[in-house]
Amino acid sequence: MINSFIARDRSLAGFARPDVDPFVGRYETRESGHVVGGFSVPDCPDTGLTSWSTVGASFFDTGYRTARGTPMTVEFVGCAGSSWDRFGTALAFCTFFVADGGPSRYGAVVRGAFSHAGPDVTTPHGFIVAPFCWQNAFAPYEDADVHTTWLQVVPITDGEAAFAEERTGDALEDLFERSQPDLFDLGRSSLV
After folding, report:
1. DSSP character for 57?
2. Are 124 and 114 spatial neighbours (Cβ–Cβ below 8 Å)?
3. What is the structure's pLDDT at 17?
4. What pairing do the DSSP bridges indicate for beta strands 109-110 and 125-129?
5. Count of other CB atoms within 10 angstroms of residue 86
6. Angle (nearest 5°) at CA 179 between 85 and 124
7. CA 46, CA 33: separation in Å to the nearest integer?
């Protein structure tokens, strides 16, 4: 079974910062009693950006299984401009969404994930994608008990969330690829 140290170390390896010893904070929700850890790494992957990761999201069952029947779990990562200091709360929100039965798959929209990230946020929802901000791979963890993978949460607007839900997550990713918005700015304008 994956443990907190494995989750932390695999995230740091994906961030290309294996020698960092981050402070792992704690996020919890009173309603359900769920708890998850999280940390940030400043100036990662570049100056002015901060990378974030959960630690312990993989303790929650996603309901998915590998072809061999092994339970699949997930840790969430993300990246934003360094002035957005509440990104970890959104990753915790996504963790609690999964713990309560929400999907943790590519293209899923997590409504309200960034709604507590500050008054200037125009991107209140999370969009789950494969990690793309970092050059290193986020190596999955697998043993006899579990298969854990890493997914990135991207902040999106109301219009973009509706677009992904009405069409597909792939359609939104294609729109991002064509338009090249600043996905690190939680106060950016909507593409739709």
Report:
1. G
2. yes
3. 97
4. antiparallel
5. 14
6. 35
7. 35
Which residue type is seen at 174? D
Cβ neighbour number for residue 43 with a 10 Å cutoff: 12
CA distances to 59, 140, 179, 186 from 20, rounded to whole Å, are 23, 20, 34, 26
Residue 91, burial from CB neighbour count under 10 angstroms (0-12, 13-18, 19+): buried
pLDDT for res 81: 97
pLDDT band at 35 (very low <50, low <70, confident <90, very high): very high
The pTM (predicted TM-score) of the whole model is 0.96
- CA 53, 55, 61 angle in degrees (round to 5)? 115
Beta strands in the chain (DSSP E): 25-28, 35-42, 49-55, 72-81, 109-110, 125-129, 141-142, 147-156
Cα(38)–Cα(123) distance, integer angstroms: 21
